[in-house]
Amino acid sequence: MPEIGETLRETRMRRRIDMTEVEAATKIRAKYLRALENEEWDLLPGPTFVKTFLRTYAEYLDLDPRLLVEEYRQRFERPTTQDLTPFRRERPGRQRQRARRPIGPFVVVGLAILIVLGALYILGQQGPDEEEPNVVSTPTATPTATAAPTETASGSKRKKKRGPARVSLKLTATDRVYVCLVDATGKAVVNGEYIEKGRSTRTFRSKFFRVNLGNSSVRMSYGGKRYGAANIGQPIGYELRPGKRPKRLKESVRTGLCAT
């Protein structure tokens, strides 16, 4: 099986994903992501964080997180102290020896003291009866239990709603336009085709998209909103992610889409 770090690095580079994009999407610091790709486990906070970061990074790259985490456990995770402690079984002879120990002198002295105290208590109970004083009972105020304030629904913390995990995208041409559309797996769902005026693509769904447009004659519909491409007089590219506005691609990334 390939190395863990090599698998992460090759997958990310094959999909032309920059490390800053991974950091923004996974909320894992870039230095920890590089440590995962270089298998520098000592630079990470601990085995628990390693497995958590490894699972999150693998899911972002659409890899199987269970295989990578299991590979890390078998090759790099050290056994705990409890696993290294051998189980000791006492010999039957030792148990018999402990059971045959004689009663110590302290036990005998303690029993003698208890017998003397018991005799004194019995003699005290057989003395003359004394008149019991009249006891006037006075009512005592009993504290009234007050109900503890309960946390109202308005005071409780509400969980933040998570944004959509995938993008639903549809492109409509306002004039004849060249389109190259690549999804999160690196697959070109529209592989360098011309869309005629008034025509639309079908609705695609993915974690994110990258699109290369020959001109600005296109309308992008996703997230319940419509966006038009900027008219810069030359081809332009965008990255489309859930809950975010279109982000313009670098020229080197745009030209690499649908490259033959």
Q: How would you portray this structure in words?
A:
- This protein is of the alpha+beta class and 260 residues long.
- Among the domains are: 4-75, Orthogonal Bundle (434 Repressor (Amino-terminal Domain)), CATH 1.10.260.40; 167-256.
- Helices cover 35% and strands 18% of the residues.
- It has helices at 4-14, 19-26, 30-37, 47-60, 65-75, 81-84, 92-99, 105-125, 251-256; strands at 167-173, 177-183, 188-195, 204-206, 209-213, 218-222, 225-228, 236-240, 247-248.
- The strands form two sheets. It has a five-stranded antiparallel sheet.
- The two termini are 30 Å apart.
- Mean pLDDT is 78; it is low at 81-87 and 127-156.
What Rg is obtained from the alpha carbons, in whole angstroms? 38 Å
What is the terminal separation in angstroms?
30 Å
Q: Quick check: average pLDDT? A: 78
**Overall geometry:** elongated
Pfam families: HTH_25
InterPro entries: Bact_Cytoskel_RodZ, Lambda_DNA-bd_dom_sf
Keywords: Membrane, Transmembrane, Transmembrane helix
Protein name: Helix-turn-helix domain-containing protein
Keywords:
membrane, 434 Repressor (Amino-terminal Domain), 260 residues, 35% helix, Bact_Cytoskel_RodZ, four-stranded antiparallel sheet, five-stranded antiparallel sheet, alpha+beta, 9 helices, elongated
Topology:
Layout: H1 4-14, H2 19-26, H3 30-37, H4 47-60, H5 65-75, H6 81-84, H7 92-99, H8 105-125, E1 167-173, E2 177-183, E3 188-195, E4 204-206, E5 209-213, E6 218-222, E7 225-228, E8 236-240, E9 247-248, H9 251-256
Antiparallel strand pairs: 1-4, 1-6, 2-3, 2-5, 5-8, 6-7, 8-9
Helix pairs in contact: 4-5
